[in-house]
Amino acid sequence: MKININYRDEADKQEKNEEVIERVCQEAALVYGLGPNAEISILLCHNEYIHELNKQYRDIDRPTDVLSFALNEGEEDGYDGPDTALLGDIVISLDKVQEQADEYGHSFERELAYLTIHGMLHILGYDHMEPDDKAEMRKEEEFILTRLGYVRPGEDL
């Protein structure tokens, strides 16, 4: 799987963040059978920019933590198999990563991993609008995070 990581502000570029994102996306590719031609783009930004996007695309006038834009959005099955090249775009607010890591008492890396897999699952067709869907998505998130060792303090691997 090809992962394109971009920054709204190049000053935010950090190798450790890219390593977390790469690990999560590659694990998702392995678990969900995404072929080597699958490609995802991830933009790391701050609250101001993701707020603009959230307002523009979701008509929600506040910053959010992650936005996903699937290229196959609206198609019944989501991901079309290993020959699909472009899956979509994920936008993650670095401000929200830090805020939520502090709020939930875990590391920045764990929160970045969580938001990355959350965004990937949306790209792959998962949603959390209904309680059963939310439970299924949460189970998938924790499955990937646990496989990679991104657990909250006090959680067992």
UniProtKB/TrEMBL annotation:
Matches recorded under InterPro entries: MetalPrtase_cat_dom_sf_prd, YbeY, YbeY_CS
Gene3D superfamilies xrefs: Metalloproteases ('zincins'), catalytic domain
Subcellular location field: Cytoplasm
Domain of life according to the entry: Bacteria
Keywords: Cytoplasm, Endonuclease, Hydrolase, Metal-binding, Nuclease, Ribosome biogenesis, rRNA processing, Zinc
Residues the record lists as binding Zn(2+): 118, 122, 128
EC number(s) on file: 3.1.-.-
Keyword Zinc set for record: yes
Family of this protein: Belongs to the endoribonuclease YbeY family.
HAMAP family, sorted: Endoribonucl_YbeY
Name this polypeptide is given: Endoribonuclease YbeY
Organism: Megasphaera hominis
Gene: ybeY
